[in-house]
Specification:
about 0% strand; single chain; 4 helices; about 70% helix; about 110 residues
């Protein structure tokens, strides 16, 4: 026996319901771009190695939202100097980020009793 559903409230101004095609495209985009990241984050969380990444993500979001000049090249200049000293090439950027996240993780564990 089917039960009738109540009417949904009206959509906010400017919102339109998505078509099946739009929902499929969104699902495909999520599966291709976001799902692998979510799975990686789950592994890091399971190993207690997410504090550094979470803080870096929060800071990067703050930078992007404030538009505080971090896109003007000064940060890239600092990274180039680090790479010149360490001679790691482009992969050095990923390694540097991972090392920074690991250090934040270590500090976070020391702060937690």
């Amino acid at each position: 026996m089917s039960e009738e559903r109540p009417d949904l409230p009206p959509m906010p101004p400017g919102w339109m319901p998505a078509t099946g095609e739009q929902v499929d495209a969104l699902r495909e985009d999520f599966n291709a771009r976001m799902l692998p990241v979510a799975l990686d984050l789950a592994v890091l969380a399971r190993h207690g190695a997410l504090a550094g990444v979470a803080e870096i993500i929060a800071e990067r979001r703050r930078q992007v939202e404030l538009g505080d000049g971090h896109g003007n090249g000064w940060l890239r200049g600092s990274l180039d100097a680090w790479l010149a000293v360490n001679d790691n090439g482009e992969h050095g950027l990923r390694e540097a980020g991972a090392l920074i996240a690991a250090e934040i993780d270590r500090e976070s564990r020391e702060e937690t009793p």
